[in-house]
Specification:
By secondary structure, the chain is an alpha/beta fold. It contains 8 helices and 13 strands. It has 2 domains: 104 residues, 3-Layer(aba) Sandwich (Cobalt-precorrin-4 Transmethylase, domain 1), CATH 3.40.1010.10; 124 residues, Methyltransferase, Cobalt-precorrin-4 Transmethylase, Domain 2 (2-Layer Sandwich), CATH 3.30.950.10. Helices cover 29% and strands 25% of the residues.
């Protein structure tokens, strides 16, 4: 049978692709992190759900693969299944399940959904970096922030803070301030496409003193990013062609 690895977007059904919705409709069982299955359940209440807690990614994939031996199953991820999602792990672990077909379903990741809320911050080259050091050494994260800042990328930060990492965003901003102006245009969006969505445009200096949570996506502009009619915009240079 088939295992769909589904990126369902931010959580609002309007942001779910037709392909994702079709895969979930075809599935008898939907597997995922508890927060994500709760978001999907209100749209597909008739399905069977299997949920696990945070850091149980391997367990989730194993459950999904075992169930997919005999039926169609979806394992769900917020945003896109291949951007900090389960697609890679599912493919890695599928080697032991030759009878299970894997299909990866793309979704709208936070960089794109949040970027649309703020305006057009990603019109030119950009880098996406997670500040979570659960799976990536903090030294490597710091190096990536430094290199992206020096290269004048617009930067999108995922997982910018948590109870254990309350000062990580401030530390990231301090590194970026070595290469970027304190007046660099920045923005953040919390709960993208979910109840309680909120956003703000601010400077890099202000961002360094701002508290956010793990449901927030942070955008740091490049040297040309500006605010136009209340929107964060990174020009690509069309008017100069």
């Amino acid at each position: 049978m088939k295992l769909y690895v589904v990126g369902f977007g931010g959580g609002d059904r309007r942001n779910m692709t037709i392909e994702a919705e079709t895969a979930l409709e075809k599935s008898e069982i939907i597997v995922g992190y508890t927060v994500y299955t709760d978001l999907v359940k209100k749209f597909f209440p008739e399905k069977k759900y299997i949920s696990t807690g945070m850091t149980k990614e391997t367990d989730r994939v194993k459950i999904a693969l075992n169930e997919a031996k005999n039926k169609n199953v979806s394992i769900v991820c917020s945003g896109d299944s291949g951007v900090y999602g389960m697609a890679g792990l599912a493919i890695e672990m599928s080697a032991g399940y030759p009878d299970v077909e894997i299909e990866i379903i793309a979704g709208v990741t936070s960089a794109l959904g949040g970027g649309a809320v703020l305006g057009a911050p990603l019109t030119h080259d950009f880098a996406v970096i997670s500040l979570s050091d659960l799976l990536t050494p903090i030294e490597k994260i710091i190096r990536r922030i430094r290199c992206a800042s020096e290269a004048d990328f617009t930067i999108v930060l995922y997982n910018p803070s948590s109870k254990k990492r309350s000062d990580y965003l401030k530390k990231a901003c301090e590194i970026m301030l070595e290469y970027k102006s304190p007046e660099t245009v920045c923005g953040y969006v919390r709960n993208i496409s979910r109840d309680g969505q909120e956003s703000r445009i601010l400077t890099l200096a202000e961002l360094s003193e701002t508290s956010v949570d793990m449901f927030t996506t942070v955008f740091i502009g490049n040297s040309e990013t500006k605010v136009i009619n209340g929107k964060m915009v990174t020009p690509r240079g069309y008017r100069n062609v």
